[in-house]
Structure formats: C-alpha cells, structure tokens
Amino acid sequence: MQPLKDIHLHSSSFVYDNAKRGNITYVKALTFIAIFILLIACFNFINLATAKSLQRAKEVGVRKTIGADRKQLITQFLGETVFLTIISIVLSLALTALLLPWLNEFTGKDINYSAFTNPIALLVFLILTITVGILASLYPALVLSKFR
Question: For the whole model, what pTM was predicted?
Fold first, then answer.
C-alpha cells in the first residue's frame, strides 16, 4: 500500500503497473544541477561586477563628493542589480514560453508552462529573483561603496 500523493514520483520500482511514473531521483538531480548553475551564474556576476568596479570608481567618487553616503551607494548598487535581475527573469520567462512548443515537438513530450497563470509560481519567481539579485550584488556593492 502506498499513499496516493506518492504514487507518481515514488513508485518507480513497481513492476506490475503500466502507469506512467516519474522518478524522484531525476527530479532531485535536475534540481541540484539547476541550483549549481544558478550559483555559478551568481559567482560569475560577482566577478564581473568587481572587475568593472574600477570603471565605476569615478562615479562613486563624484557621488561621494556631492554628498552621498555609503548607505545610499549600497542601495543604488543593490537596486541596479535587482532591476537587472528582474529584467532577465522576465526575458527568460518570455523566451521559455516562446520556445516551449519547439522543445515539445523536438523531444516528443508534452510539457506545460503555467508560470503566468499560477500565482504561486509567480510569487516563487519574484522571491527567487529578489533573493538572487541581492545575493549577487551584495559583495560588489560593499566593495564599490568603500572607494574614496
């Protein structure tokens, strides 16, 4: 006997059942790979933003001369990065919606895309976008705001 909610992903070892089932191992592996790719992208962004900070040193100097304090500079850099992250997530969601029929045809699968119709998915995307934007820009913002 098995709970009904566990049948799809947790019953891949059943032999005498003809139903289509998923495999929780694949779901966990793909989730781990997605998180790993996201972390690599965050580290890449931190590296690029820190390398570009030398070009923004003049801007930081001018803003500090005008009277901006460190908190205002950190807020500006965090806001810029979160805005850039929001633009990238909207672009990626739109591209996913446009390219999903082609992927379904190519793989022979029927993958549904309900990110725009599911409010929970939109909330998760929003929270993930803001979290990634803040985490990716925290170190460059702290480094840039220390410039004299």
Answer: 0.69
